[in-house]
Amino acid sequence: MNFSRLIKNCSIPSRWLLANNIRYQSSSAAQNLIQVDINEETGVSVVSLNRKPVNSLSLELFKDFCGVMDDLEREKVRGMVLKSSCDNVFSSGLDITELYPNPSEERFEAFWLWFQESWLKLYASSFPTVAFVNGHAPAGGCVFAISCEYRLMLPYYKIGLNEAPVGIVATEWVMNSLRAVLPGKNAERLLTSGRLLDTQEAFDIGLIDQIVNNEEEAMARSEEFFATFDNVPKLARALTKQVYRKNDLNQLIKNRSSDAKQFLNHILRPETQKIIGSYFKSLKDRKKD
Ligand SMILES: CC/C=C\CC/C=C/CC(=O)SCCNC(=O)CCNC(=O)[C@H](O)C(C)(C)COP(=O)(O)OP(=O)(O)OC[C@H]1O[C@@H](n2cnc3c(N)ncnc32)[C@H](O)[C@@H]1OP(=O)(O)O
User: Per the UniProt entry, what are the Gene Ontology biological process annotations, in alphabetical order (predicted)?
Assistant: First the structure.
């Protein structure tokens, strides 16, 4: 597997991370997998995941997300609100069809490296980030949310890292992002049980910062969050965030190839394929009941 070639083709903006050596080209302009709306007055950008029906995270979506993050860095936006344009779902996590049945190594390596890249760009972004969790956010959906700096969530949805019950072991950088949000023992319990929390439970343990009742409220709370940085020089804020998150970022940056190889080996194990297969089948069968 030529991981180093692929890693060279990925980039994140921060100067002390990877070389910024490719330009973004939308892989799926026709599908419009990500919608971006920049408010010229406030400088706030609303980024909506738009892969119907449930925003499952595919290679194409990750590529487009990275392109959008590059654009927002160039535009020097004041802040970003990440939300979904699908009904009732923020994101249903990694697209299971990227993992099952037995993905090709070529597709999988690209998929995984663009997933890593999306996380790096979001986790290290120079501008403040808010996740407006306006629907369920299991697994990879929760990863997007916890990589933002502030989380708002609508009532009656579920959020959490349910990888373990799906037969998947969360990678270290995902665990680190969770540990940055929750005190150690709650993070470990959430990961090992794979339990999905409802909005109130997520608020009670600090996984989300505020419960909001509608989009208007979410935008008002986001604005208040962004306003807390109005008197802070942008560069100082960005570098403080990036240095604060440096250990988590470096853990992945130094191990991108091995992280991808390890995950592929895990996914291709017959036992893992079997568990993911029955889980996927149960998702499909649920509808028939
Ligand atoms: C090692 C890496 C470690 C950490 C990194 C993060 C890694 C994470 C691994 C994952 O993300 S694996 C994916 C885990 N995701 C889930 O367990 C969520 C599964 N989905 C659901 O529970 C539900 O779909 C929902 C609650 C999100 C939404 O429910 P509902 O509104 O009732 O929609 P449907 O269930 O009817 O779904 C519509 C349609 O979409 C298909 N689908 C749902 N999720 C996925 C998915 N993640 N990948 C691919 N396809 C998905 C579902 O089967 C339905 O398909 P139909 O053909 O039946 O229409």
Answer: fatty acid beta-oxidation
